[in-house]
Amino acid sequence: MEILIAQHAGFCEGVERAYRIALQQTQAGKPVFMLGNLVHNSQVVEKFIKAGAKIVNSLDEIPKGSNGILLISAHGVPPVIYERAKGLELEIVDTTCPWVKKAQKIAKELADAGCLVIIVGDKGHKEVQGLVGWSNGKAIVVENLDDINPLSFSPNQKVGVLAQTTQSREHFKAMAAELKKKAPSLKEFDTICGATAKRQETAAELAKKVDLMLVIGDKMSANTKRLTELCQQTGTKTHQIQTVGEMMVGWLDGKQRVGITAGASTPEWVIKEVVAKLA
Ligand code: SF4
Known about the structure:
CATH class of the largest domain: Alpha Beta
Number of strands: 12
Bound molecules: iron/sulfur cluster
CATH architecture of the largest domain: 3-Layer(aba) Sandwich
């Protein structure tokens, strides 16, 4: 059996950067608080917890006067979090990915210019919630056509659309085209990150060449979910797994070529474990 790994798989530049910065902070001798998961990968998060970092779901969980460090995740946060953290006298270490920062900047500029901001993305995702905050809290989030169909805009309404950085480009373009029918002067900003586009392209290319695809990544990871969908769309049998323990021997029955890809927050050691088990 042949095992092929997609050219762009595993940690992206944004996650790599967040991981490196966060690991340095755990050695700074101060309490380190992570607001939610630093990245959407439970193995990576466990590593930080072992190194002494504490996960909090809200700033209210951080004791006043802790003199601690607040780690902002790669997905970014709304502006209100920075203001509140200053009030708690926390040192902010911001690992927001530069691609997400760029999307936040566009959202803010559009909202400040009186534009209605529409975000194509997953409604519950942290990055999207952050982008809504940067749109002065007034953005509309659309996931699919069902969300777009009920929308209507007045002729004078300025409307701008941008994407959660990990959306598929094809989906974003399709959603933007639908919105344009309702708002002809729509301003379109493709804020999908380069790493995501490359990962998706190489995953789909590989899926077409193999008879089984394994997509490795956390169930919470939006970009991993997207990779799985894209691989499935090629018609090749695809399974998404989080750890090597989820693999089933029966999946390999009659398969000659197995392809592997992994989400942007999947560390290399997890990919290696899967390859070793397959081999
Ligand atoms: S997937 Fe893209 S936007 Fe998200 S952290 Fe990685 S490089 Fe940044």
